[in-house]
Structures are given as structure tokens and as C-alpha cells.
Amino acid sequence: MEETISLKELFGTLKKRIMMIIVITLVAVSISGAVSFFVITPIYQSSTQLLVNQEKSEQPNLNVSDIQANLQLINTYNVIIKSPVILDKVAEQMDGAFTTGELNSKITVQTERDSQVVNLSVQDPDPYVAAEIANKTAAVFQEEIVNLMSVDNVSILAPAEVSPGQSPVSPQPFLNMAIALVVGLMVGVGVAFLLEYLDNTIKTEQDIEKTLALPLLGVIGTMDQQITREAPARSSRSAHVRSES
């Protein structure tokens, strides 16, 4: 026998377990906020921009072939920036505070499509350390690329700086809490329907008709215990009155 569920029954299930859904949602949001604010270490990001251009010894006017050649070099430069040749020197300038592998994990190199600008980003719990690593890496790369590629076509467009009141890039507490709100609601609603599906107890007359598929002939009402205790007392008082009369 196929069972159909109406919208009224769905909303009835949600209404019946609305407090459970709210509690699950609030717990999810609270845990997400607590973890984001008090557990996860904030990570800051500083970035510097490098321009890959023609060699300084060449004529100042650029043509299409020069630009295409520079664009092809950028992919190679992206690899060289994070290579031990560069990062070893950066680690030395940082007085050994970080190993080459640690610096590699902190640095991200990206290039805009069809652009000669390379973005060098560094993430660290200390924004000033992140800016220092970015600037030292850019300076070392600009100096070493002359020896490695026999070209002098890298310029630093914008050094990394720490802005006042700089916000961390991660975590993002309010975004995490918003995600937790949605997930909490989904889990709460799912649990509510699961409990309703597993609940096979009969509570109302409609449940009897639905479960047994039989018509309901009558209903036995329930009486309050206090009324049942008072009923014999009233009966005895009435009998006593009739006997006196």
C-alpha cells in the first residue's frame, strides 16, 4: 500500500519538533563560533607584485613578440621563486627562523591570465613576518634571476605592507557560523523526520485509522483522576441527603 505525505503532515512534523531543530542549530553555530574565535590560529596574508618585462638593455619600445616571450617566461619564474635556490637565501636572511620547506608552504605564486604581473603572497600568523618574507623573497628573486637566466627583466611593482587593523584571511568566523547555521538546520530537520519515521506508536484516532485501515466506531474518553476521586464522595453525600429526607 502506497503512503502519501501531505504538506500539512510535513509542517506538523516540523512544528512538533521545532525546539529540537532550534537546539541542534544553536549548538552547531555555537561550536563553530567557539572554534573560529578561540581555537583556530588567525592567519594573515601579505602580497607583493613583480613585473616581468623586457631586458633593461634592450630598446624601450615593446612589441608583440617581446610580450609573448615574457609571458612564457612567467611560468618558469613561478617555479624558480619557490625553488631552494631562492628560498635558501631567504631563510639565511631570516636568521634561520624558517626552513626552506616551511617557507615553501607559506608562499603562493599566482599570475593573472595574459598578464606580466606575478603576485607573490605569504601567509603567516604574524602579519609583519608575512610581509617580511614576501619582500625578502621578491628581492632575492630579483637579484638571483640575473645570474640564473642571464636577464634583468624583473621589477618590484608594490612591496608587501601591513595595513592598520588588517584582518586575517582565515578563519572567517561569521562565514563559518553562517555555514554552521545552514548545516545545523539541515541536520535538525533530517533528525526530526528520521525520528518521525521511526516512531510507530499510536497516539491519536487518526493513527489507528491510518495504521489498521479500519473505520473508527467509537472513542473512550479519559477522565481526570481528581474527578474520579470526587465522584464517589458526591454520590455518598447525595445518598445521605436522600436518607435524611
From TrEMBL:
A GO-annotated cellular component: plasma membrane
Transmembrane segment boundaries: 21-44, 174-195
Pfam families given in the database record: GNVR, Wzz
GO MF annotations in UniProt: protein tyrosine kinase activity
Recorded topology in the membrane: Multi-pass membrane protein
Polysaccharide chain length determinant N-terminal domain sequence ranges: 3-93
Entry's localization field: Cell membrane
The UniProt record lists the keyword Transit peptide: no
Coiled-coil boundaries: none
Name of the protein in its database record: Capsular polysaccharide biosynthesis protein
InterPro entries in UniProt: Bact_polysacc_biosynth/exp, GNVR, LPS_length_determ_N
Domain Tyrosine-protein kinase G-rich residues, every copy: 141-194
Protein family according to the UniProt entry: Belongs to the CpsC/CapA family.
Major subcellular location class: membrane
Source superkingdom: Bacteria
UniProt KW keywords: Cell membrane, Membrane, Transmembrane, Transmembrane helix
Record keyword Transmembrane present: yes
